[in-house]
Specification:
The chain has 186 residues and is an alpha+beta fold. It contains four helices and eight strands; from the N terminus they run H-E-E-E-E-H-E-H-E-E-E-H. Bound molecules: fe (ii) ion.
């Protein structure tokens, strides 16, 4: 399983696509229009991530069928588009999560998307210099083996981005709490 795509609906597809290309290294793959008739159109730009899944990933493909693994699990690891983890939260009435869900018709939605980076500090520096987003804390949250930070909601997508730097798997409860507190007013 791997992350296949994340769909956004935005006001300006070209401006938003340029942001993703400049800030996160995506490449334009194709563009297409969908005609709903009676003058109604939806226009789409497809962007692909910078890493190659084939042939350098750990899976060996024949057509669309996985037929084996590389002998060395580290070979091509950086180029494999790993399946994202899913993190599901709810909250009691009046809590940070409870309020956020209540403000969205009680249904909630995507709160943030996490991108793994080589250095959270370097990424924060670059995003601040380029003006891509503001952050909810001055410094990254640090636990042993885990560094994280949240942006404020993007002016172009309305989504909060998390940058995460991992030396080990799993989550750190102190970081999760600090991250949630940093977004209490968003
Ligand atoms: Fe997260």
């Amino acid at each position: 399983m791997r992350l296949d795509h994340i769909a956004y609906r935005v006001a300006d597809r070209h401006k938003t696509a340029k942001f993703f290309q400049d800030a996160l290294g995506y490449k334009l793959q194709q563009e297409f229009d969908i005609d709903f008739g009676e003058g109604q159109f939806v226009k789409c730009l497809a962007l692909e991530p910078p890493e190659n899944v084939i042939p350098k990933g750990p899976w060996v493909y024949h057509g669309e069928v996985i037929v084996g693994l590389f002998a060395d699990p580290n070979e091509g690891y950086q180029d494999y588009h790993l399946a994202p983890e899913i993190f599901v939260s709810d909250g009691t009435p009046g809590s940070i999560v409870g309020n956020w869900v209540a403000a969205r018709s009680g249904v909630g939605g995507i709160h943030h998307m996490a991108y793994q980076v080589d250095s959270v500090a370097d990424t924060m520096k670059m995003w601040r210099e380029k003006g891509y987003a503001e952050f909810t804390s001055e410094e990254p949250m640090r636990c042993p083996g885990l560094t994280q930070v949240f942006t404020k909601p993007s002016a172009l997508t309305g989504v909060i981005y998390e940058f995460i730097e991992r030396q080990e798997y799993g989550f750190c409860r102190d970081n999760v709490k600090a991250l949630m507190e940093s977004t209490a007013k968003l």
